Amino acid sequence: MITLALSKGRIFDETAPLLEQAGIRALENPETSRKLIIGTSDNEVRLIIVRASDTPTYVQYGAADLGIAGKDVLLEHGGEGLYQPLDLHIAACRMMVAAPQGFDYARAVQQGARLRVATKYVQTAREHFGAKGVHVDLIRLYGSMELAPLVGLADAIVDLVSTGATLRANNLVAVEEILPVSARLIVNQAALKLKRGAIQPLLDAFSKAVDSNG
Ligand code: PRT
Ligand code: MG
Predict the structure, then answer these.
(1) With 90 as the cut, is the pLDDT of residue 128 above it?
(2) What is the mean pLDDT of residues 144-155?
(3) Homologous superfamily in CATH for domain 2-91+182-213
(4) pLDDT at 214
């Protein structure tokens, strides 16, 4: 049996077509089912439904053989015990620094000001600002980062941006790109060795599906 860890929402939605191209269909819809373990049309493959930020943990400890997680989540996790064979090119967005319209970020950086930055992506933000030599106090939030500058909690945020609609709706503007983000297939390193015969065809099928989507 092969276990694949996925989060519901955009990761499941955008993975389902790839799975289908690999001949695997979920037997229930995780958006409507309350089940956390879902069988598939392939008797040897099951899905487990986890929080997006928990996916690497399930795979690291071998509770799942494979998983699908955003690059953002993998950078925060650190990637220990994980093999990352494939960029699936799904759930794409960009990790950005954003600030209120009218806040001169470039000038603040140039002047060496100490910035308060709210984010869920503390590790990635620390590395980014550290490499640039920007002084920051990082404030860890678990969501709705866009609110922080509006109520004086932070000068700027680090968040994911896809359409930009959320930033616009809150009078924020992206001032710097940190990195492009997409979802990656991850594999437990020990499982890859022990179950290579079962896992390799799945990796090949994902790879073929990604290529055919160009
Ligand atoms: O929601 P939950 O707290 O359970 O976890 P999560 O937010 O980590 O999960 P989910 O399902 O929302 O996101 C899963 C993965 O999708 C992330 O880890 C990213 O790799 C990827 N992804 C792609 C995104 C986005 N695009 C995205 N736009 N994740 C989040 N967003 C959010 C962003 O944080 C911001 O609040 O959408 C908002 C901005 O969107 P736009 O279109 O208004 O710019
Ligand atoms: Mg979310």
Answers:
(1) yes
(2) 98
(3) Periplasmic binding protein-like II (3.40.190.10)
(4) 80
DSSP-derived pairing of the beta strands 136-140 and 45-49: unpaired
Using a cut of 0.70, tell me whether the model's pTM lies above it: yes
pLDDT of residue 98: 98
In the reported structure, the alpha carbon of residue 169 is separated from the centroid of ligand 2 by a whole-number distance in angstroms of 17
Protein residues with CB under 6 Å of any ligand 1 atom: 7, 9-11, 51-53, 70, 72-73, 91, 93, 143, 159-166, 181, 183
Per CATH, the homologous superfamily of domain 93-180 is Periplasmic binding protein-like II (3.40.190.10)
Place of tokens 């922080």: 148
Distance 54 CA to ligand 2 centre (A): 13
Atom of ligand 1 nearest to the CA of 161: 44
Domain locations in the chain as residue ranges: 2-91+182-213, 93-180
User: 146 CA distance to ligand 1 centroid (A)?
Assistant: 13
Mean pLDDT, rounded, for 13-40: 97
